[in-house]
Known about the structure:
6-stranded mixed beta sheet
Amino acid sequence: MTRKRDLPPPYSTLAVRLLTLPGGDEREDRLAVEEPLELRVDGQPVAVTMRTPGHDEELALGFALSEGLRPLSARVPDDLAANTIDLQAPGFDPARLTRSFYTTSSCGVCGKGALEAIAVEAPPVESRLTIPYPVLALLPERLRDAQAAFASTGGLHATGLFTPAGEPVCVREDVGRHNAMDKVIGRAFLDGLLPLRDHILCVSGRLSFELVQKAAVAGCPIVVAVGAPSSLAVELAEDRGVTLAGFVRDGRANVYSRSDRITA
C-alpha cells in the first residue's frame, strides 16, 4: 500500500496557468519555486545560491560545513534582508574563499578555478556500519514517499538521511540537488548527529563529485542514489572510504566502492 504523502509547504510550490498541446486545453499546474539566497558570514556576503525557500538556516549550515568552515549558528540577519541568512563562524578567513561564489541550482562546484579549490577537507570515513541489501534497495522508495513537493511539481531533488534499519530521520527537497544535501547535513548538525557514521544518505538523482564530497565531510559511510555516479564521484568515494551505490531501483543496485558494507 502506498503511503499518503503530506502536502508540500506553501512556499515551495507556485500555481500557474498553462496551455496544453495538442488540444489547446488550459489548466492549472504547480511549479517548484526557485529564488536566490545570499549567505553571509559574520555579516560579510560569501555566496549566493539558487534554492527552493524553506529550511534556509539548515542550508546555510550545511553549505558552510561542506566548505570547511566551522559554523556555530545560522539566522536571519539583523537588517532582516529578504532571502538572506547570516552564519556565525568564528575564525572565518575570507581569503579561503578565493572565488566569487555563485552556485546555480544544478551545480554547486561550477566556477571553481582549480581542482585544489575543491579538495575535501575530511579524513577517510571510519565506520563499522553494514546494512542488508534488502534495506538498501528500499531506500529510494521510502525517499520518494516523503517527497511531497516532488509529487506536486515533479521538479525537485531530494536527499534523505536514514537509520541502518531504513527508517527516515530527515528528508529535504530543493531545486538544487546539492542544496537538498546541505539542508540534511545542516539539520544533522543542529540535532548533534555529526559525524554520520551510523547513518545512510540517499539521493533522488545522480551522484556528482560534490554530493560525495559533502557526504564525506559529514562522515557518512554509505551513499545511495537512484541514478548514476560520475567517475570523479567514484574516485572520491574510494579515496575516502565511502560506500557508493547507484542505479538503486527495480530491485537492483550497482555498488561502486566499499561493497563490504552491504550484506546479503
